[in-house]
């Protein structure tokens, strides 16, 4: 059985010059884990963290993780004043009193994938995906991405994505509590998902049995069938979801209960929502507010899904529990 759980993001707060080195060391370790060169990833981390110190008040944070087999994902996120002219900044044409104004240009030059989202007086998020093994270029825009950010070293949330039979299956799991024991529970439930990712009807019973020797978990499984233009899903506990489409925003209904705690599995229905072209699915755990601000954010949803996840995490995290947000688009733009 292939392990499907995505790596959690390591979060490095940047508020002091010493934090730039911490961000650089984090991406270096990820690159080495993938047996690749860390030079470009370290450059990206250094430039983005330095920008946070110079331009974001009171700083921000760098999020990074390995994306096997050969990429490192790096995000810089802040709640600063925003960038007045993104195009000029990315081209390196904006000399700044505190720097040369060339940082984003350097980051874009060494990135396989690069994206920026900024809002006046709300903050900026920058994405860089670096190929550390100089392998096959990834030209197509990503259809899905997400992030898990733990309050301790081991994140108790987890997520996974699998493609099968023309469908895309997405599972998001919240192990009870946080830390290592919660992560064990998330692992168990995601392994049950990996056994048969598109089996929505059998998932709850299978995941419940897998979680019996753990502290338990909440989980939502969605299977997107683009040909039939539907999402079939089942949800137990507090993993929330919304489908944002041309006709509006529709929420996923969840069932009460916890996987693994009782002798019998919780009762959970298999439900269906329509999945029109240009729809976006957003799933998140209770480390974020239950009411994500998705209305009126069409511009944000057009960006790379990882950047969307980072902005939603910034704007809605509770900062006291593990938090996960996953974004899936119907079409790559």
TrEMBL record:
Residues 139-330 form the PPM-type phosphatase domain. SUPFAM superfamilies: ATPase domain of HSP90 chaperone/DNA topoisomerase II/histidine kinase, PP2C-like. Pfam families: HATPase_c_2, SpoIIE. It comes from the Bacteria. InterPro entries: HATPase_C_sf, HATPase_dom, PPM-type-like_dom_sf, PPM-type_phosphatase-like_dom, Ptase_RsbX. This is PPM-type phosphatase domain-containing protein. It comes from Virgisporangium aliadipatigenens. The lineage of its organism: Bacteria, Bacillati, Actinomycetota, Actinomycetes, Micromonosporales.
């Amino acid at each position: 059985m292939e392990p499907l759980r995505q790596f959690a993001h390591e979060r490095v707060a940047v508020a002091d010059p010493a934090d730039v080195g911490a961000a650089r060391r984090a991406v270096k370790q990820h690159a080495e884990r993938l047996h690749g060169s860390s030079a470009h990833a370290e450059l990206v981390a250094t430039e983005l963290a330095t920008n946070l110190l110079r331009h974001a008040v009171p700083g921000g944070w760098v999020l990074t993780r390995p994306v096997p087999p050969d990429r490192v994902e790096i995000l810089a996120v802040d709640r600063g004043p925003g960038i007045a002219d993104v195009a000029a900044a990315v081209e390196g044409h904006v000399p700044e009193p505190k720097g040369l104004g060339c940082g984003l240009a350097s980051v874009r030059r060494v990135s396989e994938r690069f994206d920026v989202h900024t809002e006046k007086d709300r903050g900026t998020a920058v994405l860089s995906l670096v190929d550390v093994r100089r392998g096959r270029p990834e030209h197509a825009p990503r259809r899905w991405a997400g992030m898990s950010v733990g309050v301790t070293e081991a994140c108790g949330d987890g997520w996974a994505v699998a493609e099968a039979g023309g469908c895309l299956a997405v599972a998001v799991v919240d192990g009870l509590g946080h830390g290592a024991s919660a992560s064990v529970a998330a692992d168990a439930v995601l392994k049950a998902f990996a056994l048969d990712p598109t089996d929505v009807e059998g998932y709850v019973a299978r995941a419940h049995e897998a979680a019996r020797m753990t502290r338990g978990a909440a989980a939502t499984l969605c299977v997107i069938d683009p040909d039939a233009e539907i999402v079939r899903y089942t949800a137990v506990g507090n993993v929330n979801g919304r489908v944002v489409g041309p006709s509006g925003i529709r929420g996923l209904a969840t069932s009460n209960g916890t996987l693994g705690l009782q002798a019998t599995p919780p009762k959970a229905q298999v439900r269906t929502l329509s999945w029109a072209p240009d729809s976006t699915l957003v799933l998140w755990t209770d480390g974020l507010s239950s009411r994500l601000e998705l209305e009126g954010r069409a511009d944000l949803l057009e960006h790379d899904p990882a950047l969307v996840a980072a902005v939603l995490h910034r704007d809605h995290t509770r900062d006291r529990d593990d938090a996960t947000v996953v974004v899936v688009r119907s079409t790559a733009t």
